[in-house]
Structure formats: C-alpha cells, structure tokens
Amino acid sequence: MPLIVIPDDEPAVMSPSQAFQKLAGYDVRTHSTRPSTSTELIERIRDAQVVINIRASTRFSADVLSDCQRLRLISIWGTGTDNVDLAAAKARGVRVTNTPGVSAIAVAEHTLALMFAVAKQIVQIDRAVREGKWPRAMVTELRGKTLGLIGTGAIGREVARMAAALGMRVIAWTFHPVADMLEWVTFDEVFCRSDVVSVHVRQSPDTFHLIRREQFQLMKPGAFFINTARGAVVDEADLVQALQTGRIAGAGLDVFECEPLPAGSSLFSLPTVVLTPHAAGITPATTEAGLALAIENVFSFLAGEAANVVV
Length: 311
Known about the structure:
Blueprint: E1 3-6, E2 27-30, H1 38-45, E3 50-53, H2 62-66, E4 73-76, H3 86-91, E5 95-97, H4 104-119, H5 122-130, E6 146-150, H6 154-165, E7 169-173, E8 183-184, H7 187-193, E9 196-199, H8 213-218, E10 224-227, H9 236-244, E11 250-253, E12 273-275, H10 284-302
Parallel strand pairs: 1-2, 1-3, 3-4, 4-5, 6-7, 6-9, 7-8, 9-10, 10-11, 11-12
C-alpha cells in the first residue's frame, strides 16, 4: 500500500474534513504543522509515494524532489502550482495535479465584493460612522463602467458573467484567446480603457511582475485595481506608488508578494485599499469540494488514470 503524506495541514482543514474520511484504510501520515525548512519537508515526505499538498508555502524545489526518490505524485489542493518546480518534477517522473474550477464561484464573488468595497468606500465610511461622523461620500456606481480582465480561466469567466449581470461592460486579455462572446483587446488596452482592472492569471515565469509601473501609468485616474490571483503577478512596489501618488483611485487585494503581509507594509497606511488575507476561495463548500477532488486525484493516479494533471 502506498504511503500518502500530508506535510502541511496548518491550520487544519484536511484532517477535520468529511473528505478526509475517503482515505480511511490507506497508509496516511498527516502533519499538523507546516515544515519550516526544506530539510524538514524532506524528512516528512522522504518515504512517500504520494503527497497531498495543502499550503502554498510548502515548496517542492528541485533539491527537495531529488531527495525524495519514491515520490510519484503531488496532489495540490487549489489551482496554483507556483510552489512546485514543475520542470524538476517532470524530469523526475513526478506527476503534479491540482483542483481547477472548484473555487471559481467563491473567488469570483470575492472579486466582486472587493470591487464594491473599494468603489463604495465601504471600509472608510464604516470607520467614519463608528467614530461618530456622518459622511456623505460621493461613491462610484459600477453599472455602465468597463471591467477589464487579465486572464479568463474559470474564475475570470465567472467574474465576467457576474459583472455583465450588474450592467458592466467586460473586456478581456489572455495569453490564448478563443472565439466566443468575450470582447478581446490587447494587454495595454485593458489598462487604458477599464474603470476596474481585475487579475486572474496563474503565477508562472511568464506572469512574474506582468503588471508594473507601465501598466498603472496607462490606467484612468479614477480606476480601481483588483487582484485575487497571485501577489507576484504584480510589482507591489509599483502598485503602492500608483496608489500613494493618486495615479489610480484604489485597490482591492487578496494576494501579496509576501504573505502574511509584513508589519511595515506600506499598504496598511493607504485608506483607498481594501485588504483580505488570501481568503477569496475559502468557504465551507469550496473547501470540502477542493479537498475531495485532491483526494480523488490520488485515487485516479493510483488506478492508472491520472486526472487534472499539470505535468
């Protein structure tokens, strides 16, 4: 029976889930803390044939993979694979799977929540009312505004549907557009024409700092920027500068280059920014569905019919 290791269930989501019961009868070792070093990770998974990865902070580097000769599958809960050296995994014959589409609705809803929070100045006005003030802010209406999408996977397309239902015009850019009902524009046009720009691409070498000073300079002064994808897709220092100088009107951010945000982050002092802790896809239903699919990916692999394969 293959050894299945869950090296990073902190805070615990897998072990208390209903999905975890699917592994009853299998040889499973679950660690309730995150490995603090690559050496500790290697110690936990050295004898494993299968790893179910819960946290993106657990990094499967080429060195880690080379020291885990028995490893054949990394089943990731979530869509992001930037914590795995995919080239090294492929070279060593280690399959990597993920759980695409499971969190699309939850993340799309969170994206719209950030759009509303920023456009309506919800956090600022709430704070003012609690301080005994009675502000009459002139906030932004979203109906009739243009939403520009960077990336149109499952989440981006769900955001497009929701935004269209609000009466927003949707334009989009992606690496590989297909003929359908979306209005495709160039990368720079998204920033020039949009009242709200929302990011939905994966983190990869191709998308690292894809959005930086040049793009923020193209945006309208009254435009908002939303990111529920990955922090490193955006040059955070350039975004901060655009916000500090008033080059753009505000931002809603669920992801950051460094997570958790360090105590001295400049983002904390910006009143036009709404911050959430990389939690867009975390709902009870989404969590259960994602964990169940990560486990089903293991079963499919063991049956010789790997599903949701990244490499």
